[in-house]
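Hypothesis: this fold can be encoded by more than one sequence.
Test: take the structure tokens below, design a sequence, compare later.
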């Protein structure tokens, strides 16, 4: 639409988003996908009709009509391109969260913690996470991922602005106060457009009633938006399970803040204590399984590797056994099975995690990775598309995964666009960036990316990478192509 309106003139990405999507929360990748579809229809392989100008600027160059009997065909294709762009615009507008006639979209913001200082910590996020998980089980709703919602922690923005940026119809905000024995939770459901309070309530319950209170909150939210609520059995939680959950949350927070060997070893020690003290809770086993996997992955734990792999497997399966409705238990099992080279088993576990919590972006991301490793790239990209709907803001690992899948398909221009659209670049992702640049024939940039990776991973080698991915990357030729790219980019053999 916008490109056809000004043929021959450049239009930047922001202008396209503003004109076509009219203020909706759209990722730059949405524009790139539409442009790619136009080029496909026009058979514009060389990008001579729809040009990409540096710095995310596009230009429509109408084909000449020098040959009369072909000009009509070209004009038809140009018109079809405009139609495709319109279709893209409307499709993305309809599929974005909050667009009618789709299901209601709810964003659960992090709850404020008004507890005394000695009790402040991870309980707030645990409560918000539980509400999000419970709501995600209702097919009547679409729940924005916490990774996007939690970017507005302590934000001064009006609720309507937050809802608009997240693409949410409704926003749940609240607070809680824990005094050591009781938790007082307040919650308020707000209309994302008008900021009208649709429902509010307060709960003052003993700690062991915490999850049951959240089930009631979830059902009341469901009633507030006028949807039929699926009858669910209320979960039970003991004091020990709450404590184990807090340890697991503390471990996750610690490793996210400081991804290092020291942080991981603290997590392993704490979770060992959790397993001993709370043997009937799934949180200790699933958390420890994930920690041991990270330890082996980065060489941060010592001992008999085969024995550690077996213990990871035992712990992950124990987590599932203790809490078969916990999506994180299946996510942990999938990660362990993948690392232990049971790719099909990992895919099944990730699918179960997604079934239990369809709004978990990292469970879907793990599934997408596993599918790509076995060559199911189209299905993997479908999972990525779902992630882009439920996790619209915080997506660096999603971009990283998607870019690697695009590289795997040979769409290296698209892969670079996807990668550079990420809000941040983890150091480990420089391996992918190096492979992409090498695919594009830019050896210098490939070596620069590899240098950035090796600066923080000085002992990494192609042999170590081969040992890591052998048995996991089973798509024909994928592992060899990856390893050859890394070596050509400068990774020591």
């Amino acid at each position: 639409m916008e490109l056809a309106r000004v043929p021959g003139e450049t239009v930047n990405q922001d202008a396209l988003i503003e004109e076509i999507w009219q203020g909706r929360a759209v990722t730059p990748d949405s524009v790139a996908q539409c442009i790619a579809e136009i080029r496909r229809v026009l058979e514009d392989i060389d990008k001579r009709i729809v040009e990409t100008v540096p710095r995310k600027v596009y230009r429509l160059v109408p084909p000449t009509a020098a040959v009369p009997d072909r000009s009509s065909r070209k004009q038809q294709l140009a018109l079809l391109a405009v139609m495709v762009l319109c279709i893209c615009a409307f499709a993305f507008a309809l599929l974005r969260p909050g667009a009618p006639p789709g299901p209601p979209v709810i964003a659960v913001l992090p709850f404020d913690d008004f507890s005394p200082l000695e009790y402040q910590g991870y309980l707030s996020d645990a409560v918000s996470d539980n509400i999000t998980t419970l709501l995600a089980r209702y097919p009547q709703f679409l729940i924005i991922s916490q990774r996007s919602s939690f970017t507005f922690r302590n934000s001064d923005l009006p609720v309507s602005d937050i809802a608009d940026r997240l693409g949410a119809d409704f926003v749940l905000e609240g607070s809680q106060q824990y005094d050591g024995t009781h938790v007082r939770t307040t919650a308020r459901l707000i209309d994302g457009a008008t900021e009208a309070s649709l429902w509010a309530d307060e709960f003052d319950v003993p700690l062991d009633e915490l999850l049951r209170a959240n089930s009631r909150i979830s059902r009341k939210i469901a009633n507030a938006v006028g949807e039929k609520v699926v009858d669910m059995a209320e979960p039970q939680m003991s004091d020990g399970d709450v404590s184990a959950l807090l340890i697991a949350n503390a471990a996750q927070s610690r490793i996210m803040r400081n991804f290092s060997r020291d942080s991981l070893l603290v997590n392993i020690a704490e979770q060992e204590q959790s397993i001993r003290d709370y043997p009937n809770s799934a949180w200790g086993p699933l958390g420890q399984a994930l920690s041991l996997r990270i330890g082996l992955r980065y060489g941060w734990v010592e001992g008999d590797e085969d024995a550690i792999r077996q213990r990871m497997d035992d712990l992950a399966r124990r987590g599932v056994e203790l809490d078969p409705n916990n999506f994180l238990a299946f996510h942990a099992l999938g990660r362990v099975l993948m690392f232990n080279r049971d790719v099909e088993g990992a895919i099944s576990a990730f699918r179960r995690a997604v079934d239990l919590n369809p709004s978990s972006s990292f469970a879907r991301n793990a599934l997408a990775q596993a599918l790509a490793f076995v060559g199911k790239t189209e299905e993997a990209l479908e999972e990525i598309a779902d992630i882009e709907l439920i996790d619209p803001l915080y997506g660096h690992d999603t971009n990283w995964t998607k870019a690697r899948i695009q590289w795997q398909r040979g769409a290296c221009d698209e892969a670079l666009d996807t990668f550079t659209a990420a809000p941040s670049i983890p150091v480990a992702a420089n391996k992918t960036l190096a492979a992409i640049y090498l695919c594009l024939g830019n050896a210098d940039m490939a070596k620069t990316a590899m240098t950035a990776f090796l600066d923080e991973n000085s002992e990494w080698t192609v042999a170590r990478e081969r040992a890591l991915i052998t048995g996991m990357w089973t798509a024909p030729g994928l592992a060899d192509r990856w390893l050859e790219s890394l070596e050509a980019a400068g990774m020591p053999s």
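The first strand starts at residue 10 and ends at 12. The longest helix spans residues 68-95.
Hypothesis status: open.
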